[in-house]
Amino acid sequence: MGISKILVVGATGHIGTFVTKASAQLGHPTFALVRPATAGPDSSKKELIESFKASGITILEVNRLNPQLFLSSILFCLVKFSKDRTWYASLQN
After folding, report:
1. 6 touches 31 (CB < 8 A)
2. Most exposed residue of 1, 14, 73, 82, measured as fewest CB within 10 angstroms of its CB?
3. Is residue 1 one of the residues assigned to a domain?
4. Does the pLDDT of residue 60 top 50, yes or no?
5. What is the predicted pLDDT for the residue at 24?
6. Could you report the per-residue pLDDT of 6-35, keeping only the tens digit for each?
7. Domain that holds residue 76
8. CB under 8 Å to 76, separation ≥6 — which residues?
9. CATH number assigned to the domain comprising residue 10
10. Which residues, other chains included, contact 42 with Cβ-Cβ below 8 Å and sequence gap of 6+?
């Protein structure tokens, strides 16, 4: 069995921080789903986000207040994880 890609929702929360770091340390391609305000330059979690990036973790910003943008972000995640992307083309029609 190969290495799994891991998407962590709530990556900057108390438990999510540990899960995200552990996933990356174990060699899994790790993606952290965060709100734009959390990833912003004035965020109290800026150092955490930067440490994630330095560890090779991909940061995916998702705006849950804009339903269309939120759905697009989730679809992006699904496409990024999918080996067979043909299903995505059918969603665009």
Report:
1. yes
2. 1
3. no
4. yes
5. 94
6. 888 889 998 999 999 999 999 988 989 888
7. 6-91
8. 60
9. 3.40.50.720
10. none
